[in-house]
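pipeline/complex-builder :: batch 7 item 3
reading input block
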Amino acid sequence: MKKIRENNALTGWLMVSPLAITLLVFLVIPIVMIAIVSFWRATEYSIIPDFSWENYEFLFSSSVTYRVFLNTFKYALITWAFTLTIGFTVAYFLAFHIRTLTWQIALFLLCTIPFWTSNIIRMISWIPFLGRNGIANTTLLNMGIIDAPLEWLLFSDFAVILAFVHLYTLFMVVPIFNTMMRIDRSLIEAARDAGASGAQILWNVIIPLTKPGIMIGTIFVVTLVMGDFVTVRLMSGSQSANVGRLISNDIALLQYPSASATAVVLLLTVVILISILLRFVDIRKEL
Amino acid sequence: MEPRPRSFYILGAVFALFILFLYAPTITIGILSFQGEGGGLTFPMRGVSLHWFRDLFEQQAVGDIWGSFRRSLALGTMVMVTTVVVSVAGGLAFRKRFPGASILFHLVIASLVIPSILVSLGVGLLFSQSGLNVHWASSGFGAQLTWTLPFGLLIMFAVFNRFDKSYEEAARDLGATPWQTLRHVVLPIIAPSLIGVALFGFTLSYDEFARTLMTAGSYNTLPLEIYGMTTNVTTPVLYALGTLTTVFSFCVIGLFLGFALLSGRRKARAASDAGKGMV
């Protein structure tokens, strides 16, 4: 019996070894590398091994850091609120109002197809809408709602959030839809028989049962927004900053140690956030 | 059937608006990429032409688009094949207990939530400090796998959670070896889901930007090329490229979905007739 168990462990290890090795070489060691380099020093053209807290001291003494982190949280929070509201509504419609499985799958696919296309192209696609002479401004001008083109549509926080919601709502729709589809319909019937109104069913039955899906969606959206640097750069026209941009700017200037220090702080922030969220959900059970 | 409640129509309208929100920008740049020669980045259209598509085929105008396209295609294929093989092996292994399973699972989740730019920075540093050259097919390939493998593995978990173990038991009872069970029973049953894993592997790699930024080396992949263009190209040639890439993505998605549909049908046709009576 013991022999068999040992054999099982060996085959198990053999089969996960490609996965484990890939994650070790391209995830664990690189993160350790970042942690090490964050203590190094940099000149204009090279980085020098060292052990100094200089990068962290600079990071925590600069008011820019706090502003940028605050801005990052702001983006995450607003995007989360919008993606959750829209994602929940869409998933609810698909799961409870569409009656045949074929239509459910078809409409679900319609929602997910953009996920498989390029994010950068989808960001660029907003330019003709939001620009100074774009569709939104022209329409509003023609309707007489505004007298002059709105300047804050493109290259602003508004555009950044809009792009985030556009890109990441799918990450809410998919897990929420998945959990909703597994809700036992007889529970809803029981609630109705017991005299619950539609709103009561939604609040006391469906939302509590959908929580794991909401948590998984939240984890995706929060981490994607916190780690982003492209969307903020493209959609704010380099006028706003988040942590990701702070890092990518340092990288562009070859200031790897200071980029690494910022990266370590970002990583810790994300890890703390996620471990709090993971307390509410068992991912393996929800798949 | 009972009549539709009023909420159906309200939510239906919200859903339709959401779909419009998802697709309208893409359709808009699709239209604008046929902008006339003198036209700009927004409406009105100044005539209709293929001018900007022609521009794409002139090397000097926009840089090495076709080279980067070929590289993205090759990299996408490499990532796809690796993701499918590694995820299936990993998914099979995780069905049984093995020491360290929990740690590895948490590592997979970590891989999914760690910001892409950290992977990019870390892999870039690792390669430069160990004296290796970054190249899209080595460091870029590995960096992208940290994003596609978790997706593939989670899909495999979902598949095996719904897998009926009695098929395997039946095969074993009939004297099949573990390998035969895997080859002739398990793999054919999970094959349609593998198409899903492949689709994720290819498209996530083909569109990946952040993880390849510092790991692709001197030869750009297509998303990197497009990102570069956004800063210095201000003509509809950008839209033409965007339209072509999106059309290509749609073709890939269509191909995979077609495959999935076909193999689903085949499975239905070849399925067991047990319990249907001897007629």
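note: Chain A touches chain B through 82 residues (CB under 8 Å).
queue -> next item
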